[in-house]
Amino acid sequence: MITEGAGIPLAVSLTGGNRHDVTQLHTLIEAIPPVRGRRGRPRRRPDRLYADRGYDYDTHRRAVRAKGITPHIARRGTEHGSGLGVHRWVVEQTIALLHWFRRLRVRWEIRDDIHEAFMSLACAIICYRRLFR
């Protein structure tokens, strides 16, 4: 899941339970819809990407930079307290909001397209609640 700064989900991807999250990084970046900026200056994607240590690979950093996004990824092997947690809690909060929906808390559907549809509906409800508060 990729969210914007206020916790509104921009892109969601469904994978198997034992897959590493970094395998979906490029797919999620490509799935981000166009973001409107100031009038006359449309932007394709957000300016910055904040990620945890699991995404700290030079190949992924280069790929994100090639898309015109500045990566802010914590380095592996360094001390905790890099300050990225201030930005990362937004994603964790949005994932917690997805668990409000009982059908998403535990996956009961065998077919992945049905589960992905429920996930899309839940993201739409989260967007609606965030925008009209």
Automatic annotation (TrEMBL):
<dbReference type="GO" id="GO:0004803">
    <property type="term" value="F:transposase activity"/>
</dbReference>
<dbReference type="GO" id="GO:0003677">
    <property type="term" value="F:DNA binding"/>
</dbReference>
<feature type="domain" description="Transposase IS4-like">
    <location>
        <begin position="6"/>
        <end position="126"/>
    </location>
</feature>
<protein>
    <submittedName>
        <fullName>Transposase DDE domain-containing protein</fullName>
    </submittedName>
</protein>
<dbReference type="InterPro" id="IPR002559">
    <property type="entry name" value="Transposase_11"/>
</dbReference>
<dbReference type="Pfam" id="PF01609">
    <property type="entry name" value="DDE_Tnp_1"/>
</dbReference>
<dbReference type="GO" id="GO:0006313">
    <property type="term" value="P:DNA transposition"/>
</dbReference>
